[in-house]
Amino acid sequence: MFDSLKKKVQKTLDSVVDPAEARVEGVSVKQGIVTFALAVDPARGGEMEPLRAKAESAVAALPGVEKVTAVLTAETVGEETGGSPLVHRAPKAVVAVASGKGGVGKSTVAANMAVALAQAGQAVGLMDADVFGPSVPRLMGVEGARPGVAEDNRMIPPEAHGVKLMSMGFLVPPGKAVVWRGAMVHKGILQMFSNTVWGDLDVLLIDMPPGTGDAQLTVAQNIPLSGAVVVSTPQDLALLDARKAIEMFARVDVSVLGIVENMSFHICAACGHEDHIFSHGGAAEEAKKQNVSFLGEIPLRKDIRESADSGTPLAAADQEGDQAKRYALIADRLMAALRSDAAGKSCRAETCGCH
């Protein structure tokens, strides 16, 4: 059904949008919710709003479409080595890093995953979607940084440890509370995604706020996610909320690419005894029950906390250490899950001849 509707959306856009004026990007159809972007010459951005509205209205008129969000993005052409054009495109993959509850170390996992992906040769971005409690600036050691401004007025993201970054923490003074209603949160998250010059990213990780509320739905329904990673501790209470996060993604037709078990165990620095403070293995067992990949387990360690507080994720601070290798393995399994999920979706397309 969704494949068929997506084809109708694409056909409609092809009939409405002149390729000489705009390029259609990032078409996503999930349970009747359609999102897409029109990449336009930034010098003509102001006059392209009627085209955006026309395309949005045409798609909204299609049977089966319940909601449409269309945004204008700038196509900036510059000089690269050899004189070829440099075009800012949508990331090849966008992955939400989520948890059902706070306090499970999701943001620390997201930051270390981003660094590990960058170390593996991927072009990586990390967007902090926690508007009320942004932690990416502190985790990545760029507190006080501010985005640059491109010629088209989009934001140029700060970079650290090989990762491009965007966060509400870059846009408000340190320590100032963001007091917004749901509509403003929705707008703020989408602007961070669409008004940032991400460049040619292989993977954009979105560090989600905990829970299953407005911010999560904004990301899941309006940003073309390739999938999601759920972070949990092994204890039953955390797993209960992790199941809610998995259920939320299922409702909005977003694949859960895998589960990470954080604070999986603790090894005593004095005697070497392995202590299962929050139980152990619960997330791996839950992954089996949910029929999703188990991406790996991260222990509860003082150096992980210290590196996060210091602004140098452990994946960067101790690249040859055991914990960095754990994050590298998780990053590798994430890329494998992305490839597998993309292949599965292609196989389920109407044109597939394997069934």
Features:
single chain, 355 residues, Rossmann fold, eight-stranded mixed β-sheet, three-stranded mixed β-sheet, globular
Offer a quick outline of the entry.
With 355 residues, the protein is α/β, with parallel strands linked by helices.
Describe the structure.
The chain has 355 residues and is an alpha/beta fold. The protein has two domains: 2-88, Alpha-Beta Plaits (2-Layer Sandwich), CATH 3.30.70; 93-346, P-loop containing nucleotide triphosphate hydrolases (Rossmann fold), CATH 3.40.50. The chain is 37% helix and 20% strand. The chain is built from eleven helices and 15 strands. It has helices spanning 2-16, 49-60, 106-119, 136-139, 182-194, 214-222, 236-251, 282-290, 302-310, 314-317, 322-347, and strands at 23-30, 33-40, 67-74, 93-98, 124-128, 148-149, 155-156, 159-160, 163-167, 203-207, 227-232, 256-261, 266-267, 274-275, 294-297. The strands form four sheets. The chain has an eight-stranded mixed beta sheet with strand order 8-9-5-10-4-11-12-15, with helices on both faces. Helix 1 packs antiparallel against helix 2 (49-60), helix 5 (182-194) runs parallel beside helix 6 (214-222) and helix 7 (236-251) packs parallel to helix 8 (282-290). The two termini are 16 Å apart.
